[in-house]
Structures are given as structure tokens and as C-alpha cells.
Amino acid sequence: MKYILPKGIEIEKAVVVDKKSLCMKPDLKITLVFEVVDHFEQSADLAFTQYSNSRLINFFNLHLQVDENLGHSFQKINVDQHSLNALDNNPSSLVELVNVIDSIFDSVKRTSISMTKEELLQKIMMNCLDFVEIREAEEQIEILEKTVPDWLCKKVVSSGDTMYCVKNALDLDSVRLRLLSSVTKGD
Known about the structure:
This protein is α+β, with helices and mostly antiparallel strands. The protein has helices at residues 44-70, 79-88, 91-107, 117-127, 134-147, 172-186, and strands at residues 9-17, 24-32, 115-116, 152-156, 162-166. Strands 3-5-4 form a 3-stranded antiparallel β-sheet. Strands 1-2 form a two-stranded antiparallel ribbon. Helix 3 (91-107) crosses helix 4 (117-127) and helix 3 (91-107) packs antiparallel against helix 6. It starts with 8 loop residues before the first strand and ends with a helix.
């Protein structure tokens, strides 16, 4: 408001005593200056209100025109839907996810036969920059589960956790080829 009504508002810094802590605290003293407005026919309060409203409307209209000049470049874009569609339609992103998942299981030297869904998703997010949100990675994993269920296996344990494991018996190249062929058939 000080920017909109520079002469109509005075702001003074002050120091006051806090009664609970008995310490000095900074405070602001804000004063409305009614003398900036001519108020012959009406009260000073009403004249000041009309003056501040007109300044506020002028400020809003001025900045509205600036937004129109900027065009659509600063409008919110639905990134989630755009990125999901790009990943769904891009078979190479699924192949990349297969490579990432394989490297994750290789890095733990496949000593742990399976890992929780949360662990897998966190490691995917750390190793693959294609995903902005965990939900995107989850959806891609679901596609992998349906497309290559004999490579990426999902199992729900008694504690309620979802566990994933990768079967070594399958050749990774055959998994990639099957994935590419099934995705291109779906288009």
C-alpha cells in the first residue's frame, strides 16, 4: 500500500516493550495522512477511501496491461500431463527405465533378492532425470509390470509392502526388444 499511496501512508519504525518477556521488540507505526486528499463536500474518511480505491484500480489496470503484453509465456503449463504423455509415447524412455532398474539391482550386487517399492522409486528418481515426480516413475513401472512381467516381478508381502525383483534368467536385450515391439504395437 505504501507503493500505491506514497504520500497517504506514513510508516515509522518503533521499539516497544513486550510485557511477557520484558524485552524490546521492533514494531511499525502506520499512520494514514488524510491531508493528501481534498475533502470539501464529504468526510475525510470517505474522501481518503475513494482516493485509495482509485489509486488501487489504476495500479491494477496498469499492471494488467503489462501482463497482456507478456502474452502467454508466463501462464501455468500443465507439466504433469505433458511429461506423462511424452514418457508414455516414447519407447526409449521405457528402455532407459529398464537400464536404470537393471543398474540399480546390479549396484546392490543382487544380494538382496528384492527391494521395496519405495526404495526402488527413490533410486530411480536419483538415477534417472527423466522423471519430475515419483508418480511418473510409478506409472512407468506399472507399464513395465504389464509389458515384461517375467522380468520385473511384483510381490505384496504380509506386512503390506510391495516388493520388486528382477529375474536374471532373462537376457536384458530380449527384454528391451520385447518392450520396444509391444510399445510400438500399442501406438
